[in-house]
Write a structure and sequence with these properties.
With 153 residues, the chain is an alpha/beta fold. It contains 4 helices and 8 strands, in the order E-H-E-H-E-E-E-H-E-H-E-E.
């Protein structure tokens, strides 16, 4: 199975002074669409999001993908997840995907932590390609706290 996320719009992400923090990345949608086509050409089931909200990302990871992985564990079948993210990123210990959300806390999605957690599930292998810069958090930003991942029950 494969998961593809492309983020190209960033007009809602602002600095403290109200100016845009990131430029849009129109090529991110093209890159995501290309990856979707390639993976489908290899007969992968592809879950994809283009310019997702935080709610959509949570739904994709915490419900859809987690459900597929847990079904594989129950059936004692191996699940290989190919994951591709393209868009802006931030870095504080792990990679954070930047989403087009006005609320800074909602715009920071812990993409690497999610992938590392899934990789710990029994019968699961995750291959992640994060096609993004990893800009460090500035002192004035309230960076999300990353958690140490451990094998889920």
């Amino acid at each position: 199975m494969a998961v593809v996320v492309g983020c190209s719009e960033y007009h809602n992400v602002k600095n403290a002074d109200g100016n845009r923090k990131f430029d849009d990345m129109p090529e991110a949608v093209d890159e995501a669409q290309f990856m979707i086509e390639q993976l489908k050409g290899f007969n992968y089931e592809v879950l994809s999001l283009i310019n997702p909200s935080r709610i959509e990302m949570n739904e994709l990871f915490d419900k859809k993908l987690k459900g597929i992985i847990k079904a594989g564990i129950k059936a004692k079948e191996r699940t290989l997840v190919h994951f591709y993210y393209t868009g802006h990123g931030k870095m504080k210990e792990q990679t954070i995907a930047v989403l087009n959300e006005e609320d800074q806390k909602k715009s920071h999605f812990p993409i690497e932590r999610k992938m590392r957690t899934f990789a710990l599930f029994e019968y699961t292998c995750v291959y992640a390609l994060l096609d993004c810069c990893r800009e460090p958090f500035s002192k004035e930003e309230n960076a999300p706290i990353t958690k140490v991942v451990s094998r889920p029950n």
